[in-house]
Amino acid sequence: MEDGTSRSLGSLAVTTPAASLCDDDEVWQWDVREGCEVRQILDRVADKWSLLAIALLDRRTLRFMELKREIDGISQRMLTRTLRRLERDGLVERTVFPTVPPRVDYALTPMGRSLHATITALVGWTEEHQMQIAAARAAYDERERVAHDGA
């Protein structure tokens, strides 16, 4: 095992970089490799479709087609996959009503609602820094253009 590597609860090797210290100097033990459960959960909840679905469902319970109409660019297949994954992870609750035609509602679970607070913080950070990010992108693009033109 490498220096700075320990065993996590799931028996995966965990490398703890020095840069990942908490305020109280505890080391975060987060394995960034594909097999890590934390990474798998982050991949699920931080993808663009999940973020949008969670944001919309925080407002109110919605039916499938309401979600599809509200989320620009999402296909029916991708929305189905996204909702199933969020349901599997315990973030979204799917309720089927025995009507004709069947009515299916989607709502956030309490755990899903707790995630929305984190998403709101991320959106706030994005809004606060969007001008700096736009400037950084423009500077990068200009450097790339000059490098490409000079080559």
From TrEMBL:
SUPFAM superfamilies (alphabetical): Winged helix' DNA-binding domain
InterPro entries in the cross-refs: HTH_HxlR, WH-like_DNA-bd_sf, WH_DNA-bd_sf
Short name of any one Pfam family annotated for the protein: HxlR
Protein origin, superkingdom: Bacteria
Residue ranges of every copy of the HTH hxlR-type domain listed in the record: 36-134
Keyword Membrane: no
Transcription among keywords: yes
Keyword terms of this UniProt record: DNA-binding, Transcription, Transcription regulation
UniProt GO molecular function: DNA binding
UniProt xrefs under PANTHER family: TRANSCRIPTIONAL REGULATOR, MARR FAMILY (PTHR33204), TRANSCRIPTIONAL REGULATORY PROTEIN (PTHR33204:SF39)
The name this protein goes by in its record: Transcriptional regulator, HxlR family
Species, as recorded: Beutenbergia cavernae (strain ATCC BAA-8 / DSM 12333 / CCUG 43141 / JCM 11478 / NBRC 16432 / NCIMB 13614 / HKI 0122)
